[in-house]
Write a structure and sequence with these properties.
By secondary structure, the chain is an alpha/beta fold. The chain is 45% helix and 13% strand. Strands 5-6-4-7-8-9 form a 6-stranded mixed beta sheet, with helices on both faces. Strands 1-2-3 form a 3-stranded antiparallel beta sheet.
């Protein structure tokens, strides 16, 4: 009954009983939040009952017997918070990423979005554009038709566009979500699969003396000092008449070219050209492998020699590819709308027509509204909130 509820934002212990028989189900901690000062902006009641499965099932069963009550859909509470203006779309995206975070770097990046880091920055940009729009509209109303546009106004548009471009040049969040692509490549029997198993700490790839054992690539997601890594074993690169192996070799070449980090286990002088190339002298424990070519790192999967140094090199490259720990990372959707705003501001900065200037500033404001979810985002909402777990 409502009379037994505690005061708003005050915790109290209450007996939970079946509405039909009055049977005691649990003694729970009850919290009441009155809208709009709640997580969703609506009236909310939280029941903190004991966590045993039987207790939870009995409480849910009793609630389900009441008219008008039903289980929440995935993401429904967060969607209500968004629709009621408690959070914006960037914060909702941050919460979705936080739920899916598996590494420390992913958690930190998601938390910055969920706590409103990007929203606050967008609000600052919106205030700047709104001020510029006010100046542009005033000029339309009061300046003479043949009077040139205020150079200071155009310069401010240009400076803000440059600031947005600097944000767009930052590493994106996709590298955090998917992991830094570390591809291990080389000829057959170079020790690629053994190296993969040595780094992963378990036998993920099949190791034999038979050339061409690995026909397709094998991906192993790892967390390296809190950084997400996607370690990839590839087919040995060689000329072959085997149709299946040839497909694996072609895929290996494609993966090597697209890698963030390429770890090469073949002859040093045969390494493919790559911006982030690490040459490894594998199987360094063997007596016939004691001569280490210049520029190569000796590594043994048997003795663990060189593994620490190799991981340190991979980590150093990963730190360049991934967003900084204290930086807000944009996703693809956010970057597209920010790019639209930057283009509008660039057009505004180069125009000689006051009406066109005002229109471009309006389009920049619209792009920011789409970024935060105030306009034109209906097509992304179902996909976003469908990622949430039940009860969130």
């Amino acid at each position: 009954m409502a009379s037994s509820l505690p005061d708003a934002r005050t915790a109290a212990v209450r007996e939970l009983r079946r509405p039909d028989s009055g049977e005691l189900l649990d003694e729970a901690l009850v919290l009441r939040f009155d809208g709009p000062a709640s997580s969703t902006g609506e009236d909310v009641l939280e029941l903190h009952c004991h966590g045993g499965r039987a207790v939870v099932d009995s409480v849910l069963g009793a609630l389900g017997s009441l008219d008008g009550l039903r289980p929440a859909q995935p993401g429904e509470f967060t969607r209500r918070a968004f629709e009621n203006g408690r959070i914006d779309l960037t914060e909702a995206e941050g919460l979705a990423d936080l739920i899916e975070a598996e590494t420390e770097a992913q958690r930190k990046a998601a938390l910055m979005l969920a706590e409103g880091g990007l929203r606050k920055q967008i609000e600052d940009w919106q205030d700047q554009v709104l001020a510029l729009s006010a100046v542009a509209e005033r000029a339309i109303d009061y300046d003479e038709e043949d009077e040139s546009l205020d150079s200071a106004l155009l310069a401010e548009c240009r400076m803000l566009a440059l600031e947005l471009r600097a944000w767009l040049d930052r590493p994106r969040v996709e590298a955090l979500k998917d992991g830094v692509r570390v591809v291990v490549a080389g000829p057959p029997n170079a020790g690629k699969s053994s190296l993969i198993n040595g780094i992963a700490g378990f036998e993920r790839a099949i190791v034999t003396d038979v050339p061409g054992t690995t026909r397709d690539h094998i991906e192993v997601p790892l967390s390296l000092s809190g950084l997400p890594i996607l370690l990839t074993d590839t087919a040995g690169m060689r000329e072959t008449d085997d149709v299946v192996e040839a497909i694996g070799v072609a895929r290996a070449e494609h993966l090597a070219a697209a890698a963030d980090v390429l770890v090469w286990l073949g002859d040093s002088d045969q390494a493919p050209a790559h911006e982030e190339l690490i040459k490894v002298h594998a199987q360094a424990d063997r007596p016939d492998r004691q001569d280490v070519p210049a520029g190569s790192l000796p590594v043994s999967s048997v003795t663990q020699e060189g593994l620490t140094e190799l991981l340190e090199k991979i980590q150093a490259v990963a730190a360049k590819v991934l967003p900084a720990a204290d930086a807000i990372a944009l996703n693809r959707r956010q970057a597209e709308h920010l790019d639209d705003a930057a283009e509008a501001l660039e057009r505004a900065a180069s125009t000689a027509d006051g009406l066109l200037l005002a229109e471009d500033l309006r389009l920049a404001r619209l792009s920011f509204d789409r970024l935060t979810g105030r306009a034109g985002v209906e097509d992304v909402l179902d996909a976003l909130f469908g990622r949430f777990c039940l009860g969130k």
